[in-house]
Design brief:
heterodimer, A: 149 residues, Alpha-Beta Plaits, two-stranded antiparallel ribbon, 5 helices, 21% helix, B: 425 residues, alpha/beta, FAD/NAD(P)-binding domain, Enolase-like, domain 1, 3 domains, 5-stranded parallel β-sheet, binds flavin-adenine dinucleotide, binds iron/sulfur cluster
Chain lengths: 149, 425
Amino acid sequence: MKRIYTLEDVCIGCHLCEVACITEHSASKDPIKAFLHEPLRSISRCTVEEWDGGVVSLSTTCRHCDEPACLQACISGAIQKNDNGVVRIDTEQCVGCWSCVMACPYGAVQRNLVKKKANKCDLCPDRETPACVDACPNRALVYKEGSQK
Amino acid sequence: MNYVIIGNSVAAVGAIRGIRNIDQKGNITVISREKHAAYGRPLISYLLGGLVTEKRMGYLPDDFYEKHRVNLLLGSEAVGVDSGKKVVRLSSGDSIPFDKLLIATGGDPFVPPIEGIAGKEKVFTFTTWDDAAKLKGIAYDIERVVVIGGGLIGLKAAEGLHLLGKKITIVELADRILSAAFDRPAGRVVAKKMKANGIDVITEDTVVRVEGEGAAITGVTLKSGDFIPCDTVIVAIGVRPAASFLKGSKVVVNRGIVVDDRMETTVKGIFAAGDVVEARDFFSGEKNPMPIWPDAYIQGDIAGARMAGGKKTYSGGLAMNSIELFKVPTISMGITNPVKPEEYEILTYQDLENYHYRKIILQGNLLAGAVLVGAVDRAGIFAGLIREKIDVTTFKDQLLATDFGFIHLTREIRDALFAPNGKAA
Ligand SMILES: Cc1cc2nc3c(=O)[nH]c(=O)nc-3n(C[C@H](O)[C@H](O)[C@H](O)COP(=O)(O)OP(=O)(O)OC[C@H]3O[C@@H](n4cnc5c(N)ncnc54)[C@H](O)[C@@H]3O)c2cc1C
Ligand code: SF4
Ligand code: SF4
């Protein structure tokens, strides 16, 4: 399956992937509206980590694991892996117990505290290429066929 | 090939998927004494408290059993296993033949013979959908509840009843609630929050007598002599492996059904997984029960793979719990309370006023456990460090930071995790 890979050497820590992710998962899909006018604003499913004042940075995201620890831990069945290998959370079914946050070794599940639901990368079902990958000005995110490990 | 699975909860589901990954042809029969298809057992407190509807209790996509070609026998109880003739006997009198058997029957709640408890009407345990439905059905007739046991199930029952506006007292024998998962400070933080919400927590005491004439309860008397008025008692002191039907078979049961790293019992061809087993502990290597949802799934998956001839092996049970009580999220994992603290290095940060606490337990260069109260984001990274036995020496100082992440690990680890094919862009 296609996965998102991160090339930290060319990550400049601009956080545009996070902005693109929030926008893509907003109601309006418009960055200004999403940030200013949506009280239940979505949260980013990728996380840019920085250290040493930004000298080192990388954007981390879900690996769509072959054997997802999040799915094994999910007490409600909200997390399922579809036939294409994509691991998604059904937020209607999610009860916000954070078992997936506890289990995911990639730290790839976020807590949406406003909605009390877990969020994670869904590889943007409405797009060809995930929004974060398209948004990265330095091509530090690559979307291609590949294995988890 | 006839695969038979007794029990139809998370361990069984892990096994069904595990079998079907390898064998699409064999027959799978699942026997469950409950009348529901697999449901989120931990959701029963949400159901009781009105946080989820019955519709949301189902654990699986609607087409799961059909898609995995499972012959599901609901409402039927296994009463015996003949390992020589390879049949499971049902209470209906039927016999189900098997080539490979999985026992995934979980635990049965244990009710001790407390004086005065026999014959009382409003005494409940809290481990099934039906238990929750029963309590919900008579909720109008409940005012004050004593919950015996301050473990996970007791607290969950208390939370559900509290959401219905009931007055609750929890009585716990240990010096803190959730003693299995929490250390003292974490237990105190949560107890403080519960008290602030009107739930009484009594520790280091126990119920010695249930009071009241006939079937009605008027209260309970504690060992300390105190009397607590109540009309309902929930018994949540623990579960025992639901394995009594194995009596007379050659399957060895200690504190659980004894299994090896393939989840095979002492009888070849008979496997067991989930709350009903005692399997190898990740740290000590000794066998003990690990009654948590994720572990039941993992064990079921391994059992299923092995039953179908696959090669998966158990890497050992790792305790982990994510428990949110009154908006204070907590995640604990691994060794949280070392019996011999001198063999560990313990790092802590606490701000009890703000319900914030963090504890990291190290053994040599390895992470052995973590307790996170308040800030729990990305806790799974710790689980990964424990499981993969990563040397934490170079980033030890960062482990207490709430923004701890991969950036603090080595470049090799980051690349292996997020860019496994290097620059193959
Ligand atoms: C209220 C509550 C809250 C919980 N919360 C959490 C949580 O937040 N996180 C967590 O990790 N864990 C939690 N747990 C524990 C978790 O539910 C268990 O670890 C998990 O359900 C174990 O799964 P299992 O498949 O081993 O067995 P179980 O879920 O116990 O299912 C076993 C099934 O087998 C059936 N059965 C038993 N004997 C027979 C027989 N002879 N014939 C036919 N069928 C039989 C039983 O009726 C049952 O349906 C909670 C438990 C409870 C009760
Ligand atoms: S959320 Fe974590 S465990 Fe789940 S599929 Fe993604 S990386 Fe794997
Ligand atoms: S928070 Fe939601 S998705 Fe995560 S384990 Fe709990 S129910 Fe499942």
